Amino acid sequence: EPLGYSTYFMSSFMSHSCLPNAVWHYQGDDFVLRARRDIEEGDEISVSYLSEDSLLESIDARRKHLESSKYFVCTCDRCNAPTDTSRGFRCPYCPGIIFHTSRRDSKPFSA
Length: 111
Known about the structure:
Elements: E1 15-16, E2 22-27, E3 30-35, E4 46-47, H1 59-70, H2 77-80, E5 83-90, E6 97-101
Parallel strand pairs: 1-4
Antiparallel strand pairs: 2-3, 5-6
């Protein structure tokens, strides 16, 4: 059981993405938003509602976590991509990288 709860007014306006372009962090007593990568003019600024460790999980695992804790199914670009290029493995037999290919006919997780 948590020790307490907090409400963060500004951070509650940020959209979620499993490939966020910004991140909130503490700098002393301040809650600061920083870019994780270049953000072009007109791009939506997004953060992840998941922990850094959870961002390393599969699409199904991330969606399950978000659906059970935040009550939505993630449809961000990373979750809808046919290949998740952030979860690759080096092939032990060649110089290539192996990526998981999403099944297009798979349905989002539903409890």
